[in-house]
């Protein structure tokens, strides 16, 4: 598997090379088209849907709930579009475990489109959004409309996340904090995890719902621009596991800082173990 990822597969014949080259050119063009559609949709939300909802729906909580379901549905359309035009293929295992409310979903982050796929699978999704998204005109509409949580330092972030889950939202967090580096992908590992999700789970007494994402070819990693498409169509597998009870990860009398560190270590071991077991092939 690592060798395949490094080489992106080398066709054995000239005809094979030509076929893969044409396929790659198509995926580059199709990826650009999909990004254009996504950007246009973000502008529509910001310039049309956001003002319309503010005008027609006065109750903020109902407006936010409606907006989140609209974004989830539109992200589902985007995932379907990427599949239809041949940019990616994907499958979800254990989807029924996401058909609940008040989930704290933690997932590894091998690609830029992970969050899009996860949001499309959840009702009332919530996310912790980086400051850069609040300055991006294509993302500002959905972020404002849905009331996503702003990423900030300090205990307020943890309190906001706990309140979101207890309020019935399904909160998505990537414990790696950024997309998995290619070096770690080749070893089927995650980046070092941040302690935020463990702090949220322990302080709020909330179970963690882990989602392990594997992909057959690196695509849209932090080190890859969108036009650097792999030779093969990437196939994503999202596997939803049973909830992890934070009370079972560390003893009850463990000091908070130490408890968060040990729970994070358990979570890191879980992801690394499952990534090595669940090798993705198309």
Question: How would you summarize this macromolecular structure in one to three sentences?
Answer:
With 282 residues, the chain is α/β, with parallel strands linked by helices. The protein has helices at 2-7, 14-56, 60-84, 114-121, 137-146, 155-166, 182-186, 196-204, 256-277; strands spanning 89-93, 104-107, 125-129, 149-150, 170-173, 208-215, 235-240. A seven-stranded mixed beta sheet has the order 1-7-6-2-5-3-4, sandwiched between helices.
The low-confidence parts are 1-19
Based on secondary structure, the structural category is alpha/beta
Shape, per Cα inertia axes = globular
Largest sheet: 7 strands, mixed
Helicity, in percent?
A: 40-55%
- Count every helix, treating DSSP H or I runs of 4 or more residues as helices: 9
CA-based gyration radius = 20 Å
As a percent range, the share of strand residues is 5-15%
N-to-C SSE series? HHHEEHEHEHEHHEEH
Q: Report the span from N to C terminus.
A: 12 Å
β-strand number: 7
Stated plainly, the CATH topology is called Glycerol-3-phosphate (1)-acyltransferase
So what's the CATH class? Alpha Beta
If you average the pLDDT, what whole number results? 86
Strand order of the largest sheet: 1-7-6-2-5-3-4
Number of structurally distinct domains: 1
CATH architecture, by name, is 3-Layer(aba) Sandwich
Describe this structure in words.
- The structure is a single chain.
- Helix 2 runs antiparallel to helix 3 (60-84) and helix 6 crosses helix 8.
- Residues 1-19 have low confidence and may be disordered.
- The chain has a single domain (2-277), classed as Glycerol-3-phosphate (1)-acyltransferase (3-Layer(aba) Sandwich), CATH 3.40.1130.
- The longest helix has 43 residues, at 14-56.
- The chain is an alpha/beta fold and 282 residues long.
- The chain has nine helices and seven strands; from the N terminus they run H-H-H-E-E-H-E-H-E-H-E-H-H-E-E-H.
- Helix content is 50%, strand content 12%.
- The chain is globular.
- It has helices spanning 2-7, 14-56, 60-84, 114-121, 137-146, 155-166, 182-186, 196-204, 256-277; strands at 89-93, 104-107, 125-129, 149-150, 170-173, 208-215, 235-240.
- Strands 1-7-6-2-5-3-4 form a seven-stranded mixed β-sheet, sandwiched between helices.
């Amino acid at each position: 598997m690592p060798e395949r990822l490094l080489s992106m597969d080398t066709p054995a014949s000239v005809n094979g090379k030509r076929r893969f080259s044409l396929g790659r050119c198509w995926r580059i063009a199709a990826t650009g088209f999909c990004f254009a559609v996504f950007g246009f949709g973000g502008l529509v939300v910001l310039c049309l849907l956001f003002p319309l909802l503010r005008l027609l729906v006065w109750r903020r909580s109902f407006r936010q709930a409606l907006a989140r379901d609209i974004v989830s549905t539109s992200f589902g359309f985007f995932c379907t579009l990427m599949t239809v035009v041949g940019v990616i293929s994907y499958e979800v295992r254990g989807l029924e475990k996401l058909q609940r409310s008040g989930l704290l979903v933690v997932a590894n982050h091998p690609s830029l489109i992970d969050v899009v796929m996860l949001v499309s699978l959840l009702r009332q999704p919530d996310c912790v959004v980086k400051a850069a998204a609040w300055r991006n005109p294509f993302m500002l509409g959905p972020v404002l409309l849905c009331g996503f949580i702003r990423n900030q330092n300090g205990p307020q972030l943890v309190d906001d996340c706990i309140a979101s889950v207890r309020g019935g939202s399904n909160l998505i967090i990537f414990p790696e904090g950024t997309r998995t580096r290619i070096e770690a992908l080749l070893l089927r590992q995650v980046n070092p995890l941040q302690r935020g999700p463990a702090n949220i789970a322990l302080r709020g007494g909330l179970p963690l719902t882990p989602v392990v994402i594997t992909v057959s070819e690196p695509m849209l990693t932090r080190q890859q621009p969108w036009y650097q498409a792999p030779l093969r169509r990437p196939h994503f597998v999202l596997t939803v596991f049973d909830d992890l009870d934070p009370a079972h990860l560390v003893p009850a009398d463990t000091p908070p800082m130490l408890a968060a560190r040990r729970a994070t270590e358990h979570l890191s071991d879980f992801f690394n173990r499952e990534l090595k077991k669940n090798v993705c092939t198309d």
